[in-house]
Each structure stands twice: as C-alpha cells, then as structure tokens.
Recover the amino acids of this structure.
C-alpha cells in the first residue's frame, strides 16, 4: 500500500470515529419507557475498534514518514515540518503586511482632525516575502504529495 492510500484511510477512520462519537453521545441517555434509536454500548465498542485501526495506521504512517527520504536529502517528516513552519511564517508575514497597509479597523482617517496612522513596516517588501513563501509552500507541498504516491507504507 502506498503512503497516500494510508493517509486516505486515516482520514476516513478519523471521520468514522467522529460520527460514532456523535451517535454514542446522542444515544447514551433516553427517556424512561422509550428505547434509544441505537445501542450506545455497541456503538462505543465499534468506535474502540476503529480507534485501534486508526492507531495502527498512524504508527505506520509516522514510521514511514520518518524513514522515507525525499528529494533534497531529508525525510518526509522533515518536509512536513518545513511545510508547517512555512505556512506559519507566511501567515505572520501576510498579517503584518495587512496591518501595515491599514487593513482592518485601524485604516485611514474619517475626519481631518483625527490623527493619521503611519506604517512602521515596509508593506511592499512584506508582500514580496509572502509571495516567495507561498511559492516555497507550493513546492514543498508538491514534493510531499509526490512522495506520498511513490513511497510504500512500512509495517
């Protein structure tokens, strides 16, 4: 099985657990003299089975990510960490540029008697840095996605 297939199974299992959780909660109590729509105990047991499968998948995915070498020499785990930090860095730079450009509540003046707000950051430079980061995020994401379809899941 390829890593990408395991990732899809993991997402399906996580959704299934959430659905079962909601059904357990909805059927955990009922009015005296009435029957619940579903057996909460059976649903809880089923959730436990799906959670066990999910744990096994996550272990195998993490083991594979830590051992799979991708273009550039690092592991898939390294690429995932890089992508996560690039996304955070992009958000910080973009938010700083938006704030410096006057986005939000602290934009321009309503009246001439109000104080003028001045930017303390170079907006154009920040936008250019955000564009470079967005490109790096896309490139890293492509590398990760390609690897997911090329790498076999470890046992």
């Amino acid at each position: 099985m390829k890593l990408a297939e395991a990732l899809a199974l993991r997402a399906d299992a996580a959704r299934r657990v959430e659905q079962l959780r909601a059904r357990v909660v909805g059927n955990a109590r009922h009015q005296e003299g009435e029957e619940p729509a579903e057996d909460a105990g059976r649903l809880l047991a089923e959730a436990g089975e799906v959670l066990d499968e999910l744990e096994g998948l996550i272990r195998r995915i993490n083991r594979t990510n830590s051992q799979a070498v991708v273009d550039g020499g690092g592991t898939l785990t390294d690429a995932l960490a890089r992508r996560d930090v690039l996304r955070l860095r992009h958000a910080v730079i973009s938010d700083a540029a938006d704030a410096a450009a006057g986005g939000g509540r602290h934009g321009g003046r309503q009246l001439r008697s109000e104080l003028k707000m001045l930017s303390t950051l170079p907006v154009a430079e920040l936008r250019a840095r955000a564009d470079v980061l967005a490109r790096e995020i896309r490139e890293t994401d492509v590398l990760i996605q390609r690897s997911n379809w090329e790498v076999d899941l470890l046992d």
Summary: Helices lie at 3-27, 40-67, 76-100, 123-150. The chain has two domains: 1-67, 70-150. The first helix runs from residue 3 to 27.
